[in-house]
Specification:
With 282 residues, the chain is an alpha+beta fold. It contains eight helices and 15 strands. The two termini are 25 Å apart. The protein binds N-(5'-phosphopyridoxyl)-D-alanine. The site of N-(5'-phosphopyridoxyl)-D-alanine has 14 residues, from helix 6 and strand 13.
């Protein structure tokens, strides 16, 4: 049985108890991070802790652990659960007041802080060999996709709709422009060999993997929007995320990308990223 971290305690996963009035439960008033583990070490820990700090400050949630406490929590969980490869999930909610109320609880209400591990093969992922088939759907999420909140219902609905349609995942679009995947940033490489990726604004999550991958790219990079049509005609396509690293996309709305197998630049980039991640993990 896993050991999880909840509000300062390391406990068996079955013993974690949270109030029914917790703001995370009633309002999705919570932010989170997913950090990958390779060789028992944390990948891009600083990037994730910094983004969590930004999500906390944008939502005004206070009282979360500081950087050194997060490091201690992560290392304790990795060690207690003997995680060689997988993820650590962190969540901070605005805490549990005495009742349901749209108004925030008093500022001294402690946040609820949860962390748990998931052991899983990440580097040897069969999907990376096969590549993903994605379908596009309207991006109807709220206007602050740059904050990593636990309001994941729309993304989850769309991912399940994509699977029901025989695909693996969704790429969301606003007015015909691709924003991002259900839980990944979306990128294409054009037939001219240019890597195109959505600019960092409020429409997408500012991916920690995206930020680490871009400096490893050999191609010219354009940070601009790209349309559904441009994506369907791309030479290569891929997604990036903490849990998937660099994951090839081989079909968009039934249009075969390249020759239908992971593109060579994407495969190289996945290897380069995994090499970088292993080398810099702490
Ligand atoms: N998802 N876009 C969205 C909407 C995401 O949820 C994620 C991450 C990303 C990629 O960000 P990063 O490279 O920092 O993981 C982009 C995580 C993995 C999840 O929800 O499981």
């Amino acid at each position: 049985m896993r050991t999880i971290y909840l509000n300062g305690n390391y406990i068996p996963e079955t013993e974690g108890k949270i109030s029914v009035f917790d703001r995370g439960f009633l309002f999705s008033d919570a932010v989170y991070e997913v950090v990958s583990v390779l060789d028992g070490k944390l990948v891009d820990f600083n990037g994730h802790v910094q983004r969590l700090a930004r999500s906390l400050s944008e939502t005004g949630i206070s009282g979360a652990p500081d950087t050194s406490s997060w490091l201690e929590i992560c290392r304790a969980l990795v060690s207690r659960n003997a995680v060689e490869e997988g993820m650590i999930y962190w969540q901070v909610t605005r805490g549990a007041p005495q009742d349901r109320d749209f108004v925030f609880p008093p500022a001294d209400t402690p946040p609820t802080v949860l962390a748990f591990t998931q052991s899983r093969a990440l580097a040897d992922n069969p999907s990376a060999q096969r590549g993903l088939r994605v379908v596009t759907m309207p991006d109807l999420r709220w206007g602050r996709a740059d904050i990593k909140t636990t309001q994941l219902l729309y993304a989850s609905l769309m991912k399940n709709e994509a699977i029901a349609r025989g695909a693996d995942d969704v790429w969301m679009e606003r007015d015909g422009w691709i924003t991002e995947g259900s839980a990944q940033n979306a990128h294409i490489i054009t037939t001219e060999g240019v890597l195109v990726t959505h600019p960092l604004n409020r429409e997408i999550l500012h991916g920690i993997t995206r930020a680490a991958v871009l400096p490893l790219v050999a191609q010219q990079i354009e940070e601009r929007r790209f349309s559904v049509n441009e994506a369907e005609q791309a030479a290569e396509a891929f997604v990036s995320s903490a849990s998937g690293f660099v994951m090839p996309v081989v079909q968009i709305n039934g249009h075969v990308i390249g020759n239908g197998t992971p593109g060579s630049a994407t495969v190289q980039l996945r290897q380069a990223y995994i090499g970088w991640a292993r080398h810099t993990a702490i």
